[in-house]
Amino acid sequence: MLEVRDINTYYGNAHILFDLSLTIAAGECVALLGRNGAGKTTTLRSIMGLSPPRKGAIEFRSAEIQGWVPYRIAQAGIGFVPEDRRIFPVLTVEENLKLGQKRGTSETTWSLERVYQVFPKLKQIKDRAGGNLSGGEQQMLSIARALMGNPDLLLLDEPTEGLAPIVVEELVHAIARLKQDAMTVLLVEQNINVALALADRCYVLDHGAIVAEGSAEFIRNNEKLRSDLLGI
Ligand code: ATP
């Protein structure tokens, strides 16, 4: 579904990603692992067109999307859930969800009802203002809003960061459910247990380059890799 080929991304003159390549097949959940500053968020931003790569190619469902503006990439079917969640504080939960709804299409596969099935908690608090939600509720809302855009690929940037263990569990359950529904997911996650519980395959990034790739099982059993590259 997605093929990233040899991308190089810069912030000004700072070279951040070096010939980075990765692939994701339809229905896969792929995790991007690595220490702080390794380039995980920049990879997601590159795919989304928010930090467009200067070199390399990004193919999404047979379209070359590098150079497209983020809005067009979203329209093409990539949903992005940023680390800071971007909830509109004065709008209610349901209003936030409606804002995510894809316009100009009749084949709406995600409805409010279906989103509430994955996140029953959101239905209970649908009239509450976004600004009055807990961190976990905001995270659920942010993922749910991205789903309302009917993505074929979901990019999740550290969805469990800063959340209490019980809320993390709830989120893992919801993401696992999306996987069962055949959603394709690229997951950036610092919580290695969450990443390994959800991912079919993992890439490890270090200093802006992919340095290892393998199944969750491979990462779990590779102690040297975990200590050298992930600091675990
Ligand atoms: P984290 O978990 O800390 O977010 P990460 O793996 O997602 O880490 P990135 O956020 O992609 O890493 O950052 C990669 C590198 O780019 C880091 O060295 C960071 O300092 C640098 N960087 C990030 N944003 C900018 C920016 N706006 N301008 C300049 N450098 C940046």
UniProtKB/TrEMBL annotation:
SMART domains: AAA. Signal peptide: none annotated. InterPro entries: AAA+_ATPase (IPR003593), ABC_transporter-like_ATP-bd (IPR003439), ABC_transporter-like_CS (IPR017871), BCAA_Transport_ATP-bd_LivF (IPR052156), P-loop_NTPase (IPR027417). GO terms for biological process: L-amino acid transport. PROSITE patterns: ABC_TRANSPORTER_1, ABC_TRANSPORTER_2. Residues 2-232 form the ABC transporter domain. GO terms for molecular function: ATP binding; ATP hydrolysis activity; branched-chain amino acid transmembrane transporter activity. Keywords: Amino-acid transport, ATP-binding, Nucleotide-binding, Transport. Belongs to the ABC transporter superfamily. Involved in beta-(1-->2)glucan export. Transmembrane domains (TMD) form a pore in the inner membrane and the ATP-binding domain (NBD) is responsible for energy generation. This is Amino acid/amide ABC transporter ATP-binding protein 2, HAAT family. The lineage of its organism: Bacteria, Pseudomonadati, Pseudomonadota, Alphaproteobacteria, Hyphomicrobiales.
